[in-house]
Amino acid sequence: MISRSLKLYKFSTKIPTGVFDFANVQQGLTAPSSIMVEDLITRFSAYTPTNMYNSLDEYSRELLLYLANDLSWGMGWGILAISMGIKIAFTPLMFSAQLNACRMKLIEPESKNFQNMIQRAMRAQDFKASRAAQKQFKLFKRKHNINMLIPGLSILQMPFLFTWFLSLRYVCSLPDKYEGLKSQGFLWFQDLSEYDPYGILPIMSSFFTFWNISLNPNMQSQSTVPFAKYYRYVRFLPFFSIPVVIFFPAGVNLYWCSSALCHLIITALARQEKIRKIFGIPKYLPGTILERQNNMNIQTIVKAVVQDRVDLNNDVATTTTTAPPQKQVQTDAQHIMHEAKSGEQKVKIFASKPKKQK
């Protein structure tokens, strides 16, 4: 017992003094102000929706005044530049959403089949089969590079557009404070603080929005989603807003018209076959129902052209022995044969390369 206490005493003498001085340790611990609750709240308060809106609102107005006054662009060109700049900044997201919608349009028959399978399984309360069908549909979309999160990313532009709309409406309501609004417009709407005297801007904006909705591939699909049959009427909604927006200031309508025009250009480009090929979207996705139907149609056309050629040969052989003069019959027959051969060659080209059929 004495030997053990001696060993403990020797070990304690080797420990530096002050290690077990709990009073010194407690005095050295102070509450760091950087992690206080109040400091955290004040630090992250700048990222609240209200403060972010105020920051964007102030920045957009300062940018408009900089373009209008410092660069001498005028209020009209400043509104156009900011409105189109926001659209151009989010063009990659919008273009990706349009291409994703084009891919979804090409697998529309498979989508209907999978949806019917899932609905039948749910009605039969076969949840295992329903989950299996959903998994297969997910793998099928992944195979053709279809991501359902891409359309949601294009919504990121909405806070910027909404803030710019409210800021512009505030600026247009104070023509005495922002003097350039009275005389820095265009053509027939020189005063940007007053409404368009002829209502041309609201009507143009409604037409551009109407074409944007009409060119959307999702609006042209015969989907099995509830209320899908009412989609065709959604494109007419912009025209119902004309009686309201016609009394908005011309600066606000100029923003709406320019934004709708930029969106229309992006949508029209995404529908071009050459642009889609650049981004790897063929006319028909390989292995889909639409591709097989296209190949069957081409084979039917080839058979019809071959049969027409046989019938033409028989008709020429019979007409050479009867009424019309020989030279006229030969010229007519040669003309018909030439058209049949040219049509057959075109069909053969399409049959060898079905993806390039127009």
TrEMBL record:
One term of GO molecular function: membrane insertase activity
Keywords, in A-Z order: Membrane, Transmembrane, Transmembrane helix
Membrane topology, record value: Multi-pass membrane protein
Transmembrane segments: 74-95, 146-166, 198-215, 236-256
Residue ranges of every copy of the Membrane insertase YidC/Oxa/ALB C-terminal domain listed in the record: 75-269
Presence of keyword Membrane: yes
One BP annotation, GO: protein insertion into membrane
Keyword Transmembrane helix in annotation: yes
GO cellular component terms listed in the entry, alphabetical order: membrane
Alphabetized Pfam families for the sequence: 60KD_IMP
Protein family (similarity comment): Belongs to the OXA1/ALB3/YidC family.
Database matches in PANTHER family: ALBINO3-LIKE PROTEIN 1, CHLOROPLASTIC (PTHR12428:SF14), OXA1 (PTHR12428)
Record-given protein name: Membrane insertase YidC/Oxa/ALB C-terminal domain-containing protein
Source organism (scientific name): Paramecium octaurelia
